[in-house]
Amino acid sequence: MKVEINRARCKECGLCIHNCPKKCISKSGELNDAGYYPVQIDDDACIGCGICYTVCPDGVFHVLG
Amino acid sequence: MAATRERKVPALVDKPMDFCPGCGHGIVSRLIMEALEELDQLNNIIFPIGVGCSSNLGAGLECDRLHCCHGRAGAVATGMKRVSPDTLVVSYQGDGDAYNIGIAETFNAAYRNENITVIVINNTNFGMTGGQMSLTTMEGQKTSTSVHGRDCSVTGYPIRFPEIVAREFPGAAYAARGTVTTPANINKLKGYIKNALQAQLNHEGYSIVEVLSPCPINWGLSPVKAMERIEQELIPYYPIGEFKKRGEEQK
Question: Residue A58: its chain B contacts at CB < 8 A?
């Protein structure tokens, strides 16, 4: 795993999905406690570039490095 | 694969915050903390926080902060800095707080060249109270108090405060405007914030960074479309860049 996701923080704004260079982020089908569908990452396609971390307003991502 | 480095939200803001989905505040508050981390000043910081959406920052912070009266963060920051000159004082305000309601305090702090850093989040309206018109609302923009679009012949033209500081206040250390629309712009903005903090650390004088930030809820746009609006409508009027660089004398 290259990027850890804090599902509870996600507010489904979609900025990471829009900016991901590999288009490997998508919405998951399960609600979190706040009532949003948090994102999920396709780990095989992910290159760990950290752009999702850069654009996320809510601190969802933790790039493990 | 290229070597990646670990990137984690600094512990001082690593809490859930109440900003709307797609709001730029979360990005900016993280950038401030990252810049403080790189300057090794995480234990030497106090935030005078304005009223409005910027107040939500207080709920997520794990460090000293004070919620000021509406618009008065410039005056409060002055007091904090004069009492404790070695502590970094970063006032965190919105455009309605810093410009509409607190223009006197913001202007006077800049005029006196107080050694503080001011971060203004410009989302072209009063976000928290329901999207009323502010000094930075664009011409023709519909808000809840300018339902037919802002008429600049009656209400004046949108204010560009960092340019005023750069042009009129020769002692000011640093004035810049950034935005959060793309990863490249976010990284550039972090450089501006770091410069502003560095200027304060070196006792160079007043530093201000304005940030063009989306307000998807009050603009009635999706987060991605709101970012596009900044690129297409706001940046032509509010240019991004450094208007006054550190160590630069007035021309």
Answer: 16-17, 19, 26
> What's the rounded Cα separation, in Å, for the pair A40 and A27?
6
Tell which residue, B67, B45, B53, B51, has the closest CA to residue B23: B53
Q: Residue A35 has what DSSP assignment?
A: S
**Domain annotation for chain B: domains and CATH numbers:** 25-244 (3.40.50.970)
Question: Nearest C-alpha of chain A: how many angstroms from B119?
Answer: 17
Task: Output the six-digit token pair for B46.
Answer: 């106090």
Mean pLDDT of the B232-243 span: 95
Spatial separation of the C-alpha atoms in residues B147 and B150, rounded to whole Å: 8
For residues B208 and B158, give the distance between their C-alpha atoms in angstroms, rounded to a whole number.
18
Does the pLDDT at position B1 exceed 70? no
Mean pLDDT (whole number) for A54-64: 93
Rounded CA-CA distance B102/B75 in Å is 9
User: ipTM for the complex?
Assistant: 0.94
Query: Residue A1 burial by CB count (10 A; 0-12/13-18/19+): exposed, middle or buried?
Result: exposed
Query: Are B1 and B160 a contacting pair, CB within 8 Å?
Result: no
Task: Please report which confidence band the pLDDT of residue B99 belongs to, taking 50, 70 and 90 as the band edges.
Answer: very high
Q: What is the distance of C-alpha A33 from the center of its chain?
A: 16
Residue bearing tokens 């804090």: A6
Characterise B23 by phi-psi region: left (phi > 0), alpha (psi -120 to 50), beta (else): beta
**Cα–Cα distance, A20 to A46 (Å, whole number):** 9
Which of A2, A9, A15 should be substituted to probe chain B, the one whose Cβ sees the most B Cβ atoms within 10 Å?
A15
